[in-house]
Amino acid sequence: MTDPWVALEPGADPAERVRVLHRAHETFTEAGTVPRPVRGVVAESWRRSARAGVHPDGAADVELTGSDLGARRAEHPLAHVMPLFRELLGTFASDGRHLLAVCDARGRLLWVEGHASTLRQARRMNFVPGARWSESAVGTNAPGTAVAVGRPVQVFAAEHFVRRVQPWTCAAAPVHDPRTGRLLGAVDITGGNGLAHPHSLGFVQAVARAAEYRLALPVPGRRAAGGPGLAALGRDRAVLTTEGRRLGLSRRHSEILVLLAGRPDGLTGDELLCALYEDESVTPVTLRAELARLRQVLGPGLLASRPYRLTVSVESDLAVVERRMTAGAVTTALAAYPGPLLPASRAPAVVRLRRRLADGLRAALLARPDPDLLADWVHAPWGEEDVDVWRALAAVRPTAVNRARLAALESELGAPGGRARREDR
Question: Residue limits of the OmpR/PhoB-type domain (predicted)?
Answer without folding.
Answer: 244-310
